[in-house]
Design brief:
Oligomer: single chain
CATH class: Mainly Beta
Number of domains: 1
Protein name: Cupin domain-containing protein
Radius of gyration: 19 Å
CATH topology: Jelly Rolls
Structural class: alpha+beta
Order of helices and strands: HEEEEEEEE
Distance between the termini: 67 Å
InterPro entries: RmlC-like_jellyroll, RmlC_Cupin_sf
CATH architecture: Sandwich
Length: 124
């Protein structure tokens, strides 16, 4: 095989692998850091149907902006739950979690929910 064809073959295989990785990242629940300093922490969460975020907590209040809304079921460590309808393009205030509690975010719909979260790192 001529050298030029080898380079083209390697490039095609590399591109195919890159596309496969990108597609798999698009289809899993994930939290993607965006920005952080001493005042705020910002991340994007993508929650797929039937793929909840793991149990966690928020020690500080936060603002959530729904990029792709839906119904999110918040399930706490005792099994109690509440549902929130987050409309695309709207912002919501969420207080800090009570001490010694954790929760999981469960997408109750059939399409991914994507939100941007801005958490205040310290109360003023």
């Amino acid at each position: 095989m001529p050298t030029a064809l080898k380079y083209i073959a390697v490039a095609i295989v590399t591109m195919a692998a890159t596309i496969t990785v990108m597609r798999s990242q698009e289809t899993k629940t994930q939290r993607i850091p965006q920005f952080e300093n001493e005042d705020v922490k910002v991340w994007k969460s993508i929650v797929q149907p039937n793929a909840p975020l793991t149990m966690h907590r928020h020690d500080h209040p936060r603002v959530l902006i729904a990029l792709s809304g839906g119904t999110m079921k918040i399930v706490d460590s005792t099994g109690a739950s509440e549902s929130h309808l987050w409309e695309t393009g709207k912002a919501y205030w969420l207080p800090a979690n009570p001490p010694n509690t954790t929760h999981a975010d469960v997408n109750a719909g059939d399409k991914p929910i994507e939100v941007m979260v801005v958490e205040l790192e310290k109360e003023k």
